[in-house]
Amino acid sequence: MIRQYFSVVFVSFAMGVFLLASPLASPCAASKIMNNPLTPPNTFSPQATLTSYLTHITEAFSLLQEAFVLDLNSDRIFTHTPKVLRLREEANLHFRKAIDCIDLSEVPAVYKKEISKEVVIQLKEVLDRIDLPNLTMVPVVDSSGKTLEKCWRVPKTPIEMTLITEGDRNGEYLFNAETVAKVPELYEMAKRLPYKNHDTEYFFQFYISTPGSLLPPKWFHYIPRWMSAEIYFGETIFQWTMLSLSFLFLIIVTSLVYRFCSKRINPEHPIRSDMYKLALPLILSFLAYTLMHFLENTINLSGATLYYTTGLLDVIKWLSAAWAIVVGGSLAANIFIANPNVNPQSIDASLIRTIAYLFSIFLAICILFYGGSNLGLPLIPIVTGLGVIGLAVSLAAKPTIENIIGGLTLFADRTVRIGEYCAFEDQWGKVLHIGLRSTRIRAGDRTVISIPNAIFSQMQLVNISHRDIYRFSEYLHLRQETTGTQLRWIIAHIREMLVAHPKVLSKYLYRVKLDSYGNYSKVIRVYTFISGDLRWEEYLEVRQDLLFRIAEIIHEAGSDFAYPSQTIYLAKDRGKITPTEQVLMDMERPEQEYPYPNTSDNRYDELLDRMHYPPTSEEDFVGLPLRDKSELDDDENAEVAAGDEDTKNADEAEKKDYRVLRR
Asked: pLDDT tens, 257-305?
């Protein structure tokens, strides 16, 4: 079989013909090209494109033959001689100019380098096996500088050259993208045909069975022949072996790195943990990139094997890069939060984490789109499809989106922060975490409550930690047996205690008053404020201290707290109950004062403002103590002497209004 001995045939053929000039390979043209390597191939007519392509591919093959023979006869073991390297460089230059004659616009970027080489060689193999027309019969540029045809096809083949009308190759004739896509299939159909042009015989067979780019490396000659002579499914045994070892190496290294890093991740050290988390995607991306170039350029995979292997490694590379960006965003946020000026438990830290997470997700999506474009994925249909899917997902995930918006609202309004105490509905607790979807709160009973942000942001929230002072309000229910004297003593001493207490803000308010008579108690209300500089636990300690001191004052007065109860008194009926003589005399009202208890206007005028207030002695609480009229006259004279006529008029008007109101 030719495939079993093509290397021997190639070597023997190369040693016999590499010095012979091909009719299509012009040494003068080649030397001119090497004198000016920047000169592009002539592709401004079908004839010029075909001539340039055949000339450069043939010259590249001729140079590779010479370099291969010299390399075989070289005494060096692992490296090429300078002359071989120079010939290889010249062959690569001709090869790139032959590639410039084909349209690679439809080839994905990740495959463009290797597929272009294969297509150029396969196309030459096909043309060497068919009857090419005379170059004078191929269309050329007319006198006006234009060709008569915009598309020319090699007779009896689907191989076409088309005029490019846009882009940086505008005005050039290239083997079009449809032809490039058909070349592998055409080669499979024509490879069993005999050669009609022997300039590049077995070029493609040699290319796919040897490692390296075009010229195999020196160590190739030390590979056992049985590993490189026979081709199975498009690759030699050596290439299949290296491909298997490469993926095995990738799996082993990834597993070792994962085991090493996962054991060192500690949530208590977020920066160090993120660094270990970042190591795996970075190493995986680097290995995928390195193996992809190793298999393409050193092992020289080809065909479907190259297509799927390169595609898989490229997917791993971009996915790992996106993964690394997400982890890197978390690492950057934690490094920023580690600044002493930022409280790790504050809402600012949560906002930094959220912004870093969203930004890293955005960059990761951009990276994935870029990687997809390199793989040749049609981005416009993908974006359109994602838009439709996004609409469906947004409708289905409406609560989630509402929660995210609610979380951003909490971050923007800063109603509560992490570590602060807040009250909501009938509960209160400490804010543990504010995320994108929910907020976690440690309740007073030490349970953790998770509330969706959409609901939490709409609640009436009371930020306990933000108040500048604490309110102290208590109702003291004392026993019904407590006398007025005891009540006044208790009230006075509670006021004195509040004024003397260093944590009570008595300058704002200290209200201690007899509030009401309850069904079972006499109620005193204590209302004041405690310093807001205290932490919650310290406030509770001060509150407890005040309650203890109030209880001691009540007990010292001989009273006690009342409890909801009913008192049943058992006593012997005393018979007829008669009032005192003073009250009996007072009960005998003149007829003009009836209907009693309606009081006459004169009586009201007599009583108006005559009670002793504030009381000056215990007797002021007994009966109806009135001031003498002389005292009232003195007060009125003092007002007149002071010239306060407005006050007197207001008093008269008030008395008149009072009488009207009473009626």
From this structure: 999 998 888 888 888 888 999 999 999 999 999 999 899 888 888 888 8
Query: Cis bond leading into 133, ω under 30°?
Result: no
Contacts for 190 with CB less than 8 Å, ≥ 6 apart? 125, 126, 129, 130
Q: How far apart are the first and last CA of the chain?
A: 134
Q: Which residue has the tokens 């974006």?
A: 383
Neighbours of 393 (CB within 10 A): 13
Q: Residue written as tokens 């006006």?
A: 144
The three-class DSSP label of residue 130 is coil
**Other Cβ atoms within 10 Å of 152 Cβ, number:** 21
| Geometric angle at alpha carbon 15, from 12 and 19, rounded to 5° | 145
Query: What average pLDDT does the segment 485-499 reach?
Result: 89
Burial class, 311, CB count within 10 angstroms (exposed 0-12 / middle 13-18 / buried 19+): middle
Contacts of 550 (CB under 8 A, 6+ apart): 474, 476, 494, 497, 526
The distance of Cα 1 from the centroid of its chain, to the nearest Å, equals: 61
- In 3-state terms, what secondary structure has residue 503? coil
**Residue 53: strand, helix, or coil:** helix
- Cα separation, 176 vs 112, whole angstroms: 15
pLDDT digits (tens, 9 = 90+) for 181-205: 999 999 999 988 999 888 888 888 8
Whether residue 40 is preceded by a cis peptide bond, meaning omega within 30 degrees of 0, is no
CA distances from 649 to 478, 639, 643, 652 (A): 44, 11, 12, 5
User: Do residues 283 and 254 lie in contact, with contact meaning Cβ atoms separated by under 8 Å?
Assistant: yes
Q: Cα separation of 245 and 243, whole Å? A: 6
Mean pLDDT, rounded, of the chain: 79
Q: Look up residue 41 and give its DSSP letter.
A: P
471 has which bridge partners? 529
Q: What DSSP letter does each residue of 412-434 carry, written as one string?
A: HH-SS-TT-EEEETTEEEEEEEE
Query: Cα Rg for the chain, rounded, in angstroms?
Result: 51
Alpha helices in 501-561 (DSSP H): 536-556
Closest to 505 (Cα-Cα) out of 538, 542, 547, 475? 542
Name 23's Cβ contacts closer than 8 Å, sequence gap at least 6. none
C-alpha closest to that of 287 among 266, 265, 314, 306 = 314
pLDDT of residue 336: 82
Domain borders along the chain are 2-222, 238-377, 402-465, 472-556, 589-662
Q: Which amino acid is at 256?
A: L
CATH number of 402-465: 2.30.30.60
| Number of residues in the chain | 663
Count of CB atoms situated within 10 Å of the CB of 414: 13
CATH assignment, 472-556: 3.30.70.100
